[in-house]
Design brief:
Elements: E1 19-23, H1 28-39, E2 43-48, H2 51-61, E3 65-69, H3 75-89, E4 94-97, H4 112-139, E5 143-147, H5 162-180, E6 186-192, H6 198-206, H7 209-217, H8 227-240, E7 244-247, H9 251-256, H10 258-261, H11 264-267, H12 272-288, H13 294-300
Parallel strand pairs: 1-2, 1-4, 2-3, 4-5, 5-6, 6-7
Protein name: SDR family oxidoreductase
InterPro entries: KR_dom, NAD(P)-bd_dom_sf, SDR_fam
GO cellular component, one term: membrane
């Protein structure tokens, strides 16, 4: 039976001394989860493309954390980060494959480079993270947590590669579970609604129509969940080696109803507000000359878009 992570539940087994590898650990969900795991006594290998951010998080946690700089799409860099962490702490018990990015605008105008980069980080980066840590995870009969999203079964407009990539992560978790369960490795997948992270704040800042779109969606889809709530749910799920973690709990209902969204009945979910949001998003992309946040462009050393292509 699948156990759900419900806010307010008690954390069970002890995580003291366990070693966790977290990607995207420099901010947002990765950072908050790192602090919560540290409070539970875990030791941490923190990976992020942003050196300043990941070193700041590691310093705040102290000697039980080491910060490593790597782009998750660079397998050699990830291997080196994992090797450094294993040399320091002796192995890896937990992986949180969390690094991810979002893009803006319609498929009609989305820059191909931005689409490819989004898929590379959100899918290939998750696989590379798992692959680099897998020898130690198998040896220790550990736990993998792949971070997907409610977008895996509730794809919305203007998400570009985000929703397809998160659906791919969902299936990757299922495939890994089938392969690894006989080796004593547990595989979990996390599905979240809007979480108050730099990713969401970037969207809010760059897309003026996003706030109106959330209002039109109505409750509970219009609510942004505090990042600490998400981190608490992750840590409970990690401690219990859960198959699925839903943040908040009602996401499980959306998961059950995902096939309706692909039906003609589901077409009614996307009303006139979708066209308005897409038009405003495309206008924002053209104005900013980018289809993702400025922070993502800086981290990836990517140029701004050529406006003539929009």
């Amino acid at each position: 039976m699948t156990h759900l992570s419900v806010v307010g539940a008690r954390t069970t087994p002890d995580l003291t001394g366990k070693v966790a590898l977290i990607t995207g650990a420099g901010n947002g969900i990765g950072c908050a989860t790192a602090h919560r795991l540290a409070a539970e006594g875990a030791r941490l290998i923190l990976v992020d493309i942003d050196r300043s951010a990941v070193e700041t998080v590691a310093a705040a946690i102290g000697p039980r954390a080491c910060g490593q700089v790597a782009d998750v799409t660079d397998y050699s860099a990830l291997e080196a980060a994992v090797r450094a962490g294993v040399e320091r702490f002796g192995g890896i018990d937990i992986v949180v494959a969390n690094a991810g990015v979002a893009t803006y605008g319609s498929f009609r105008h989305l820059d191909p480079q931005a689409f490819r980069r989004g898929m590379d980080i959100n899918v290939t980066g998750v696989y590379f993270t798992v692959r680099a840590a897998l020898p130690s995870i198998i040896e220790r009969r550990g736990y993998l947590l792949l971070v997907s999203s409610m977008a895996a079964f509730l794809p919305g407009p203007g998400m570009g590669p985000y929703a397809p990539s998160k659906a791919a992560v969902d299936h990757l978790a299922t495939s890994l579970r089938a392969e690894l369960r006989r080796r004593g490795v547990a595989v979990g997948c996390a599905y979240m609604t809007w979480i108050d992270t730099p990713l969401i704040r970037d969207v809010q800042a760059d897309l003026p129509g996003f706030a109106d779109y959330l209002k039109q969606l109505g409750p509970p889809l219009d609510r942004i969940v505090p990042v600490d709530v998400c981190a608490d749910a992750f840590v409970r799920g990690i401690a219990r080696r859960q198959r699925q973690i839903f943040v908040p709990w009602w996401i499980v209902v959306a998961a059950w109803g995902k096939h309706l969204l692909a039906s003609r009945l589901g077409d009614r979910f996307f009303g006139p507000e979708v066209d308005d949001f897409i038009d405003r998003s495309d206008a924002a992309v053209a104005e900013h000359h980018r289809a993702t946040s400025a922070r993502n462009l800086r981290n990836a050393n990517m140029p701004a878009l050529d406006r003539s292509g929009l």
